[in-house]
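Budget justification aside, the reviewers requested a transparent look at the raw inputs and outputs of the sequence design task funded under Objective 1. We therefore reproduce one unedited record. The lines immediately below are the C-alpha cells for a 119-residue chain.
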C-alpha cells in the first residue's frame, strides 16, 4: 500500500495568483435620457443591433424576442466588443438583401396525409 502524501495534481497544489488585468483606456459611457439604438460591427463583418436604456440595461431583439443582458455596456466594451470591434450609434435601419430567399411556408396538411405514405 502506498503511503499517504499530499497530492501534487494541478487542482490541489497552490497556483500562482493571476495578475490583475491592466487598466483600460475606455471612458465610461454616459447613460441616455431615452433608449438609444446602436450597432456593433465585428472584424469578421457581422453586426449586432442593440439598445442602451436610461437605466443602463442592454437589450437586443433576436428572432422577435427581446433579450436583456446581465452586463453593462462598459462590461461588453471591455470583453466582447473590444477593438477592433466598432460601435455605431443611432444606425440606419438595415434592409434585407435583394437576394434573400423567399419566405418558407409550412407544408399543407395534405403533405402529411397518412394515405400517401406506404409502409
Amino acid at each position: 500500500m502506498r503511503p499517504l502524501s499530499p497530492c501534487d495534481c494541478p487542482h490541489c497544489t497552490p497556483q500562482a495568483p493571476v495578475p490583475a488585468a491592466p487598466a483600460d483606456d475606455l471612458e465610461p459611457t454616459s447613460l441616455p435620457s431615452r433608449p438609444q439604438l446602436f450597432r456593433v460591427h465585428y472584424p469578421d463583418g457581422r453586426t449586432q443591433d442593440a439598445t442602451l436604456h436610461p437605466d443602463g440595461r442592454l437589450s437586443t431583439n433576436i428572432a422577435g424576442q427581446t433579450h436583456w443582458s446581465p452586463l453593462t455596456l462598459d462590461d461588453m466594451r471591455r470583453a466582447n466588443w473590444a477593438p477592433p470591434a466598432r460601435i455605431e450609434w443611432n444606425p440606419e435601419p438595415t434592409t434585407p438583401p435583394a437576394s434573400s430567399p423567399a419566405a418558407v411556408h409550412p407544408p399543407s396538411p395534405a403533405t402529411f396525409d397518412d394515405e400517401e405514405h406506404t409502409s
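The first strand starts at residue 36 and ends at 41. The helical segments are 73-78. Computational costs for records of this kind are itemized in the attached budget.
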